[in-house]
Amino acid sequence: MLDIDKYRENVEPRDVWRILKASGVKFVKFTVMDINGRPRAELMPIDPALDVFRDGMPFDGSSIPSYTTVNKSDFVAVPDNHAVYVERWNDGKIADVFMNVIDDSGKPIMRDPRNVLLSAIYELQRSGFRALMGVEVEFFIVNNSSGSPALVDDGMYFEGRNTHVLLDVAAELTAAMSESGIGETKIHHEVAPSQYEVNIPADSPIKVADNIIIYKIMARDIAKRHGYVATFMPKPFWGINGSGAHTHISIWDLDGRNLFESKNSEATPEAQSAIAGLLAAAKSISAVVAPTVNSYKRLVPHHEAPTRIAWGYGNRSAMIRIPFYGRRVNRFEYRHPDPSMNPYLAFAAELNAVMKGLSSKASPPPPVEDIAYELNAEETPRTLGEAVGELRKSPIASIDYMRDIIAAYADIKEKEWNDYESIYKWDDTWSKITEWEYTHYLSTA
């Protein structure tokens, strides 16, 4: 079982506070994650923040969706001193600190998405493995002055012209990622107009999940300064590519050997078993990795988003792709997720599926070479409603550390789907983006 005190013991709270104060930080933003992957935070001056670093932050758990009921609402969040970021893009005055939620006995609350992912990592380590993940986050930079989003450039994949967005916004984002501690990375224009992709460097799943949250905050702040909106809504425009969060996964043993690294051009037996596990779970975890009504308008043929549960080498139409550029095979890319996901829940679900495949030595179907959209193969759920139905009967819904949060999550997502269906019929609107979606997802997904 996850032990928060043991996880925190390697870093002295006062040392973290002292370094932040010496570096010029004026405020600390102590952040708790909600069930949707949205950060909830308390901002306080640097001097009183020392008490929170030492003793934790009391807060009303009933005011954050699905944490608890109003009659049992006094919770404490303790800082994860491994997860501290300085907002250099905002002059370095604010530090973001991620928190883990505990009860009055110090036991981790399993409605906290960070605790759920840490538990999945712990179970992986208990089996003798660790995971590395990296994510390609696609997003749009748009103008929203008219009440609905508008494209701001006509660029294409790997656009080389120095457009205003590429020269100013994208360049500033790349520099800010390095300065904030996310790491050195790259950014490029994606296939659709106004669409960009940034690489979140490979690291432990908890670090990458935190990095995604910080990146989304950063991107919105920087885009706003330039008069734009950075949106992580999966499909803001019909007729062009939507945005994915393609997740690269490798599994290592505790001696530092990559179990997916092959000496030839074929996936290792361990990689194939992991792929089999993830494919088997694809329908049941769809609501976690593609969590919005709008997500299922991205999952349509011929826009580089998966619609068939298949895998292949270098095949971007498949759900799982083995990146292969004539060199070694060392990871796979899961193309189902999109950037509106709660990365903590999504990664926990993915790791569980991967481990199930590894432990059973499962075998995947043959890799596909053809365009997967045209195959007579099992399809992804067609709507969020279908996906929630699959999630409720999923094996992850009965895992000790996920049972509680998945039940609550399914209820929230079912309500989201029902709210949409009370206004629109899917058969009439699957090929258009509605005002309801812009209201619910454009600035918050």
UniProtKB/TrEMBL annotation:
Residues 113-445 form the GS catalytic domain. Its cofactor is Mg(2+). GO terms for molecular function: ATP binding; glutamine synthetase activity. It comes from the Archaea. Keywords: ATP-binding, Ligase, Magnesium, Nucleotide-binding. The lineage of its organism: Archaea, Thermoproteota, Thermoprotei, Thermoproteales, Thermoproteaceae. Belongs to the glutamine synthetase family. It holds the Pfam family Gln-synt_C. This is Glutamine synthetase. GO terms for biological process: glutamine biosynthetic process.
